[in-house]
Design a protein that fits this description.
Length: 553
């Protein structure tokens, strides 16, 4: 061991203060607590009831950074039980739990409230529970990477407020069943704010209610299933403009909400929104939420994929905060936040991971969709250059998949490595129309569903007609880049895969002195005869793999 003193120090820290050091370790090495399990698993106190509807009814007070209100939870009983888990994180507090006019007993355990039901819960029946709560929610110091509420001011000193909570949980700012596996079928979001401000949330604006106390309540209705972190509030001195996109399912209402000073810049930059819709409908199928419309909403942070209310803070310029993450040049041809975050309407909001360990289902497909957008407008070579350029961001330090049942995602490689994994799979399919059909099929067959990562893996195996088990084991659950090893003896080429999982047998396209040849290497050496002596072997760069010429070694 090179660092024995450091090893002893880490061991001591893990013994005396496991939470302090755990956050710096790889997911597989961290110490997980009961709170992690309560947050990340389908507990018995969650499993017995199925969400059907939420009505979140709150007042947001910028003067003291508080939120007070209620959440009405409608649910269908799956099995007999009398203890319900509701999630709400400190410093917010649950003040009331009421059913059929009766106050229910509850107690807190960290981020969880245990509510004791007073009446028998009959299987198959639908019940309603009213949860009162309030306080000062956690402030996000680094949105959207750290969850919470952002309380800022615009250039005219008007409040500019937004929520963002992926990963850390919607229970940071409202009481809910805070696990991705269960979504309400619909939701009403009622937000009361000072009358000089406006709230923009998910779905369609159903009613604006002006009250005598110089406040206004905005009622937004979501008619489709919605995941918890996709629910949002955005409060500011907004102005609004709109347009109609003529899409695959008819006319789609597109609404844009921005600060008044930024209206003209937004009118120009947001022209990319219908361009995004056209490209992604081509590749992935119809926009999944025609009933709820599509919105871009300016916020005081970079942006997030809130369902039908995509948030935007990229400064009305192309790239990612003005940078090309692919260093290919093509990343400056589009506004990263408009394209990437809106792409999540397909993968994240319509097709949603059940467990955070499978976050690659969201991020790999939408990182990959960026190059599909480039290809749609600038050609296949441009799309290829974009996705290959993103390889410089891959770390290969941890697996892409995370740890199940504790709300822990895997490596950030779920973005760039995941995108390159899918680009590699496209090469194996080797038929662009078939590949597009698979992407569209995913969005048709898993429309508005919560899925396990294994379901997506199995679907891709089925539709490609290939056994992709070792392919996904390699790229999702291993950190090594497979190496194509080969050597040449006259007109014979001998090759294998190395630095890979057992049984890895990914098909590969190579060029023999410029002539294409398709081969299927395994982890054992295979020899084939060629029509040329001592050829030059080139591996197609579209495959995310390395190569090593062992000739002469």
């Amino acid at each position: 061991m090179k660092y024995p003193r450091l090893t002893v120090l880490l061991a001591a820290l893990l013994f005396f203060a496991p939470d302090a050091i755990s956050q710096y370790l790889a997911p597989s090495q961290r110490v997980y607590t009961r709170q992690d399990s309560l947050r990340g698993s389908i507990t018995p106190e969650r499993a017995w009831w199925d969400l059907t509807y939420y009505h979140l009814d709150i007042s947001v007070n910028p003067a003291d950074s508080t939120i007070f209100g209620s959440n009405t939870v409608n649910y269908r009983v799956n099995s007999v039980a009398d203890l319900m888990q509701i999630d709400l994180q400190p410093p917010l507090e649950l003040t009331k739990a009421e059913q059929n006019g009766k106050l229910l007993e509850f107690k807190r355990e960290g981020n969880v409230y245990w509510i004791r039901m007073a009446e028998k819960q009959e299987p198959g029946m639908v019940y309603s529970l009213v949860l009162g709560y309030g306080g000062r929610p956690k402030i996000s110091r680094r949105p959207p990477w750290e969850g919470g509420i952002t309380w800022q001011r615009d250039n005219h000193n008007q409040p500019f407020i937004a929520s963002s909570c992926q990963g850390d949980g919607a229970s940071l700012w409202w009481p809910c069943k805070d696990h991705m596996y269960d979504e309400p079928d619909s939701m009403l979001i009622s937000v009361n704010v000072p009358s000089n401000l406006m709230d923009v949330s998910n779905g369609r604006l159903r009613k604006v209610e002006k009250l005598r106390n110089n406040t206004t309540t905005y009622h937004w209705f979501v008619s489709n299933p919605i995941n918890n972190y996709g629910v949002n509030i955005n409060i500011g001195s907004y102005t609004h403009f709109s347009e109609i996109f003529n899409g695959e399912k008819g006319k789609l209402q597109c609404d844009y909400y921005v600060l008044k000073d930024d209206l003209e810049k937004a009118r120009a930059q947001f022209r990319q929104a219908p361009m995004m819709l056209a490209a992604f409908e081509y590749w992935m199928g119809p926009y999944p939420f025609y009933e709820d419309g599509y919105k871009l909403v300016q916020v005081p942070y970079l942006g997030m994929e809130h369902q039908s209310s995509v948030t935007y803070g990229n400064g009305f310029k192309n790239g990612y905060a003005g940078r090309d993450l692919s260093v290919s040049g093509w990343g400056m041809k589009f506004d990263f936040i408009i394209i990437h975050e809106s792409g999540h309407e397909w993968f994240a909001n319509s097709i949603t991971y059940e467990d955070a360990a499978d976050m690659w289902v969201h991020e790999s497909f939408i990182n990959y969709s960026e190059n599909l957008y480039v290809e749609y407008y600038y050609g296949k070579d441009a799309g290829r250059d974009y996705v290959l350029g993103c390889r410089g961001n891959i770390r290969n330090d941890q697996p892409v998949t995370g740890v199940y049942n504790v709300n822990v995602s895997g490596s950030g490689d779920m973005y760039y490595k995941g995108g390159n994994m899918l680009h590699t799979l496209r090469q194996i399919v080797d038929n662009d129309e078939k590949w597009r059909g698979i992407l569209r099929g995913l969005n048709k067959d898993f429309y508005h569903q919560v899925v396990k990562g294994s379901q997506i893996e199995d679907y891709l195996s089925e539709k490609t007609g290939l056994n992709l088990k070792t392919f996904f084991d390699q790229y999702l659950r291993d950190v090594r880049i497979p190496v194509f090893e080969y050597y040449i003896q006259g007109d014979k080429l001998t090759f294998r895969w190395n630095n890979c999982v057992a049984g890895f047998n990914m098909p590969l396209r190579i060029y023999v002195s410029g002539e294409r040849k398709d081969i299927v290497p395994t982890t054992r050496f295979t020899t084939v005869e060629l029509d040329i002596q001592n050829p030059v072997i080139t591996v197609d760069a579209n495959y995310y793999a390395s190569s090593m010429n062992m000739t002469g070694k």
